[in-house]
Design brief:
The complex is a heterodimer of chains A (416) and B (507). Chain A is α/β, with parallel strands linked by helices and 416 residues long. Chain A is built from 19 helices and 9 strands. Classes of the chains: A alpha/beta (416), B alpha+beta (507).
């Protein structure tokens, strides 16, 4: 992992343009739903923003800012959704999100962070290999007898903690879809540990590296060449974090891409009519933050020239089209877009360890997103992430809203 | 320097504990140096987020009572957004963000300071209305662009400059008195900036916007133009490679090059006389290359090819926007005649394609901040307004001083990186020279002031009206006598409006 010092160029380049807080120009649709940063929307001070957090990083590094009461809470309120990062990168060559993550890692190294709830999460992962502290042997309780596995397969379905323990129906539907599409796959059983996302994104790098190395070794020992997941957090972590630890010799696919391919190849047939108006929520780690991380080390020369040239992750090639094509292929489903969509999707509030440490703010963020979903007059909000599901369903449950949440796998499975 | 506890508590009683802070980590976001300046801004003592005019007034009165200085800001994009002196509190106007009214019949809108271009522009587009968005990016404050830090936009030729559209104004004076300007003062609504009674529009910018400010604007009305484009921004693709294309039957973009600046000037004047065109401008060429590329490395590849230097040394951008095909045919024919008469020809198709695919250049200029992509060392200068002919005279004199800086390797070799934007069909024009410097150079902080000084000296030597009043006492005293001692009058006005000198006085 890059040290905080490696991001000084980003810190000194910021000119307060505000792009990290507001919707991209081409995406603008009106007064409402124009803010893109959850913490800035809620708390308003500039310190609550990508700009603010990199300013804090710079002052900490320079010794001007000391660890004072409230600073750690402030740093960890951010959901690390990356909207600031992608929006900044539309116009600048800066690494805002990586600076924020390096700031968190520095807080942990300095013994100041993370939040107690995140430390507890790390303890549970160490003990039970999942973020909930549930028995490891229950991880594959979702696996029913009707799921066909192939022990010779080089394709593994990685369910992840949230799916396995909180939303097992996602795993079951995914397996059903893979079987229906003729995809031979296996699962890791006890070999599957937490992907490491909640530890990485709370700055607990050492702890996250342990599970990463374990999973990598498990894949290697099983000769895995393709990892399929239905969790956006796991997907984005495999693509965005794992390459920082080791070179990957397998491809990572999200289930939406697999379904898209199966539909194109005629291996999957969606027959049943599901008449409903839906809107689609782009999970951060499936959308704007899902491009593969490519290590770069070099010099930033005069006038910002990167030597050697750097391949930037600007969110251009996130998984946006696949889920939409799949939704449109389901008979009866009508897709209506929210204003803040694709690379400018507003966070659901579930990332960065926020629900653990700041449940009120996580809920506030989710309520904002549900409000936006309802503004489309859709009957349902659809997404592809169990973390998004948990948080958005919590928001739906607190209000009088009649909007429903569906994971995409449920709709596809129902349409088979 | 900490804000005294009793003052903090009084301010807190106005806005509530959630909307005021003096925590160092909160203040850190309001005192980081801008990448183009090597001096660190003064740290505020506290940041306050007022929610309405009454709260602003209460805060200002407290500041007057205790001689606590204050400054209002929204985006803090420009260096003048920061306190000039220690002992200042910042009023961050973000919460005052309502669009209070859009009057489609009389064509004006009333807004608070926190409304951004990325919010107002699309709301108006839905209604077939528009306004000249200052080229500053979608996150910037509309009110700031129409009052304190008024900026220019690419479509001024067929419309006008931001501050020309300013109508009624609600103003919390430096003492805390609320002043309503224009027709608003007579309870006659927001439609007129000037009467009955004396207009104060000339004072709105004060000494130079937030430098030596004259209080806080809490509501303004701005006049609106018709919008001939689609109701929704027609963007395709993903960031950063969006395409924004407008229907070609009524929206066409041309770029011509000219053998001499005089011929370019003549074409610009003739187009104005013919009263055609929505946007006409001579644009920067290095900035154009920055806007057209998606990384610093991409810029260098393009810049080193020499294409933009060759094709865009003396360019004329023309955007025709019409209501009908017939009107387009007419305007295009007139344009072609003028270009032929003045010796212009179209630039390379690859450059024209860039703009046809990115018509946002004429809408909200969402990617404007790419200008700063080369590490952030940049500065505009000149920034004046006068006749088109005079602005071209100023432009022709640029090589007299710019060459020295280029030869010494102090700035990017881009001698044609300046723009002229006419307004109101050629009634007036704006000039801006943008120079880019590398922050890795030793003593880079001295470059901007040295360059601006040379630029101003050239203007003085020639008797040119080209330099914006600088935030430098010595330069102001040098320029002041040439402009009817404006600096003396500005200070008298400041003293009258701000007797306690609490509204962010110049140091």
């Amino acid at each position: 992992m890059d040290a905080l010092e490696n991001y000084v160029y980003t810190m000194v380049s910021c000119n307060h343009c505000g792009q990290c807080k507001w919707i991209l120009g081409p995406k603008m649709r009106g007064w409402k739903y124009a803010e893109i940063c959850p913490i800035h929307s809620r708390y308003h001070f500039d310190a609550y923003s990508g700009q603010g957090l990199i300013n804090i990083a710079q002052e900490l590094l320079e010794g001007e800012l000391k660890y004072e009461d409230g600073l750690i809470e402030h740093i960890y309120t951010c959901t690390t959704c990356g909207a600031c990062d992608i929006n900044c990168k539309s116009i600048r060559d800066m690494e805002v999100l990586d600076t924020i993550l390096a700031l968190r890692a520095r807080c942990v190294e300095d013994g100041q962070g993370p939040m107690p709830e995140h430390k507890e999460c790390a303890r549970l992962v160490e003990k039970d290999h999942n973020i909930y502290g549930r028995p490891h042997e229950q991880r594959f309780d979702w696996l029913s007898r009707d799921v066909q596995l192939s022990e010779e397969a080089r394709v593994v379905y990685f369910a992840g903690c949230a799916t396995s323990y909180l939303h097992p129906e996602i795993a079951h539907n995914t397996a059903r879809i893979l079987n229906a599409g003729g995809m031979e796959f296996k699962v890791m059983h006890a070999g599957e540990f937490c992907c490491g996302a909640p530890l990485w994104r709370t700055g607990q790098i050492e702890a996250s590296e342990k599970v990463v190395r374990h999973n990598l070794e498990t894949f290697r020992s099983q000769g895995i060449k393709t990892v399929i997941t239905s969790c956006a957090e796991c997907y984005g972590t495999f693509r965005g974090f794992y390459p920082r630890i080791a070179e990957l010799d397998f491809e990572v696919l999200h289930i939406t891409k697999v379904i898209q391919r199966m539909l194109k190849e005629g291996r999957l047939n969606l027959r049943k009519n599901l008449p409903m108006k839906v809107t689609y929520h782009d999970p951060c780690l499936l959308g704007r933050l899902s491009e593969p991380y490519i290590p770069w080390s070099g010099q930033i020369k005069a006038f910002g020239y990167h030597d050697p040239p750097k391949l930037w992750r600007r969110g251009t090639n996130g998984v946006y089209e696949a889920p939409r094509e799949v939704l449109k292929a389901i008979p009866g489903v009508v897709l209506i877009e929210m204003t803040r969509n694709e690379e400018n999707a507003f966070c659901c509030g579930a990332g960065g360890g926020v629900p653990m440490a700041f449940p009120d703010f996580a809920l506030w963020t989710a309520l904002e997103r549900i409000d936006e979903a309802r503004s489309t007059n859709a009957q349902a909000i659809v997404s592809c992430c169990p973390f998004c599901e948990s948080n958005l369903e919590k928001a739906i449950g607190t209000g009088n809203s009649t909007i429903r949440y569906y994971d995409l796998t449920e709709l596809v499975s129902n349409a088979l | 320097m900490t804000l005294a506890k009793h003052i903090y508590q009084m301010l807190e009683s106005v806005v509530g504990p959630e909307y005021i802070s003096d925590r160092e980590y909160i203040l850190s976001a309001y005192r980081r140096p801008m990448p183009q300046i090597d001096k660190k801004p003064v740290s505020p003592q506290a940041v306050i987020l007022p929610g309405c005019t009454e709260e602003v007034q209460a805060i200002v009165r407290i500041c007057n009572r205790f001689h606590t200085k204050y400054i209002a800001t929204v985006t803090s994009l420009m260096p003048m957004a920061f306190p000039s002196e220690p002992g200042t509190v910042i009023l961050h106007m973000k919460r005052m963000n309502k669009i209070l009214e859009i009057n489609e019949e009389d064509r004006y809108t009333i807004i608070e300071p926190g409304v951004r271009h990325g919010q107002l522009k699309p709301e108006l587009m839905k209604r077939g209305l528009s306004y000249p968005v200052a080229s500053v990016g979608p996150g910037a404050s509309v009110l700031a662009n129409f009052t304190s830090t008024s900026g220019d936009h690419h479509v001024q030729h067929g419309t006008s400059r931001t501050n020309r559209y300013l109508l009624g104004l609600e103003w919390v004076l430096p003492t805390g008195e609320i002043l309503k300007v224009g027709s608003l003062a007579s309870d006659a609504g927001w439609f007129c900036p000037d009467g009955p009674g004396p207009s104060l529009r000339g004072l709105v910018k004060g000494w130079g916007g937030q430098w030596g400010s004259l209080g806080i604007f809490t509501k303004i009305a701005i006049g609106l133009d018709p919008w001939k484009g689609p109701k929704v921004m027609p963007a395709e693709g993903h960031s950063p490679s969006f395409k924004v294309r407008l229907p070609q039957d009524c929206h066409r973009m041309f770029i011509f090059k000219f053998p001499t600046l005089d011929k370019l000037r003549d074409a610009m004047i003739e187009i104005g006389k013919a009263e055609i065109g929505h946007a006409v401008l001579k644009f920067f060429n290095a900035t154009a290359a920055l806007l057209a590329t998606e990384s610093a490395n991409d810029f260098w590849e393009l810049w080193n090819s020499g294409l933009f230097q060759r094709e865009l040394a003396r360019p004329l951008y023309v955007y025709l926007a019409t209501w009908s095909r017939e009107e387009m045919a007419y305007e295009e024919n007139v344009l072609k005649d003028i270009i032929e008469e003045t010796g212009g020809e179209e630039v390379d198709e690859s450059i024209r394609r860039i703009y046809k695919d990115n018509m946002d250049f004429f809408i909200v200029v969402g990617f404007l901040q790419r200008t700063l992509r080369l590490g952030g060392g940049w500065s505009p200068t000149k920034l004046s307004g006068d006749s088109i002919s005079h602005m071209f005279e100023v432009g022709k004199a640029i090589p007299e001083f710019m060459g020295e800086f280029i030869e010494k390797g102090l700035i990017l070799n881009a001698p044609d990186n300046w723009q002229i934007i006419p307004m109101e069909y050629g009634h007036l024009a704006h000039i801006e020279l943008l120079f880019l410097f590398d922050r890795g150079l030793p003593n880079w902080g001295a470059i901007p002031l040295a360059f601006m000084k040379k630029s101003a000296e050239t203007d003085i030597r020639h008797g040119y009206h080209a330099s914006m009043p600088p935030n430098s006492q010595s330069l102001m005293e040098q320029l002041g006598p040439l402009y009817s001692n404006y600096h003396v009058w500005a200070m008298k006005i400041k003293e009258a409006f701000d007797p306690n000198m609490v509204s962010n006085p110049l140091p």
